[in-house]
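Lab notebook, bench 4. Still working through the backlog of constructs that have no structural model yet. Next entry is a single chain of 245 residues. Request: give me the structure tokens for it.
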Amino acid sequence: MLGSVQPQQLPVRADGTIRIGDLHAAVKADDPHFAVTRLVSIENTFVGRILRPEYQDEVVGFARERGLATHLDGARVFNAAVGLGVNGGRLAEGFDSVSVCLSKGLGAPLGSVLVGDAALIARAHRWRKMLGGGMRQAGIVAAAGLHALDHHVERLAEDHANAKALADGFSGTKGLTVTPPQSNMVFVDLAPELATRLSEALPDRGIAASFWPGGRMRWVTHLDVDRVAVDEAIVAVREVAESQR
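Model written out:
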């Protein structure tokens, strides 16, 4: 409760969007029994799915109509921009604040950036200080972030191509159902028994993937994953999936 925030999650459709009608329905009545609705926040990309700017415009329009502030969780917003072939600024249009991660797809060692007007950033500085989030001698961190912004945005297309190659390589493998990627994430559904075997076998081969409950794998391509690594992962997964225990 440090931020006096009471978040309310809403159902997300398969394409990563929330129905505008659901957003309207979630705005609380002016009643002392309820928290006051003040902000709508969406994420792009969302679980690897790219939200189109036209949808974001709808969300911003809804928020303006209802008198709400807007925030874009843009941890991987440059992946979305590259995937859509638009400037990153287009995806930030209309939002009161945007957060961007420098260490995920962009490959910096650490760091995120909050973007907003001068008044918002002044308040953010105060909250950061209150929560102990300040850093000393942070110039070297900023330098890495600037390098990432200058040199690693356009190369995100390589990560997307590697994700597609990974998905294509997994497709047709016994026991795997692959969701075609839109950006740098590949999701694979499989039987829990096979998920257990892969989770045991892949680390021994120096391969890391995320295993989610219910038999789902998430693969993320990034700056440190080249096509050779993609091919090695495909071979390893196929061998384990097609082997008999």
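Notes after review: Residues 187 and 218 are 5 Å apart (CA to CA). Residues 155-242 form a domain with the Aspartate Aminotransferase, domain 1 fold (CATH 3.90.1150.10). Flag for follow-up if needed.
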